[in-house]
Amino acid sequence: MGRMPVSHIRLITSGKGGAGKSTVSVYLGGALVRRGKRVLLVEMDAGLRSLDIMLGANESAVFDLADVLDGRTDPLRASVECAWQPGLWLLPAAADAAFLPKAEALRRFFRETEKVYDYFLIDTPAGLGNGFEVSAAAADSAIVVATPDPVSVRDAAKTAGLLFERGLADTKLIVNRLPEKPSQMLVPDLDAVIDEVGAQLIGVIPEDKELMQASAGGGPLSPDSLAVWEFEGIAARMEGCYVPLAIR
Ligand SMILES: Nc1ncnc2c1ncn2[C@@H]1O[C@H](COP(=O)(O)OP(=O)(O)OP(=O)(O)O)[C@@H](O)[C@H]1O
Ligand SMILES: [Mg+2]
Q: Structure pTM?
């Protein structure tokens, strides 16, 4: 009989770089925390960190994923808390770009800390290399982030197909950076994106200057911004609540 999951291990992936995986990890993580969930962001971009800056926690990051998986430190000592969203935690990526995590070590880490967190959000590097494979082997489901342009959508479709082959059947889709005007879309419409990726749409994030500035500067979004509202909708849907998707 399968193990009853105590916590949720969600892979955040895209195929194409720059689609918004890290941005989604941070602000979706924040929305889950505001629902009372304990969230750990696990950063897989070996050698290329960004979440520590986005969380305003770069000063406090001493240990990293490699230290934890290789047993040099305790997982809880290695995690750092977000400066602007208490309760949102990060296990920073390995500083060593050559670090190749093993799926079994990652699974063991999740088993050992599953009572401490309700959600693990794994922020994967771009592409379909080791970071993707190891995360897919340790996650129990995935969120694919795509921007509405032909290359991102094709890469997201490829990624969703690979996830399915890896046994992750319940992949959800977030469309990020939806342009303000339909005439600015580089694909026919949202339905075309959903059809090609072949995953259930769980949220749509608009193109948003404030979101770009907040993520670059490592700060929160204003509570009444459209993006915050969208991330809260996604968090609610992940928790099984029915929140209609308001698509312009
Ligand atoms: N909805 C949005 N509106 C405006 N800018 C956005 C939006 N989402 C992400 N961005 C910006 O796009 C850039 C890439 O985002 P992000 O770093 O989250 O992507 P990524 O998929 O994690 O990239 P990588 O593949 O390099 O890890 C950042 O400058 C971010 O601020
Ligand atoms: Mg990233």
A: 0.96
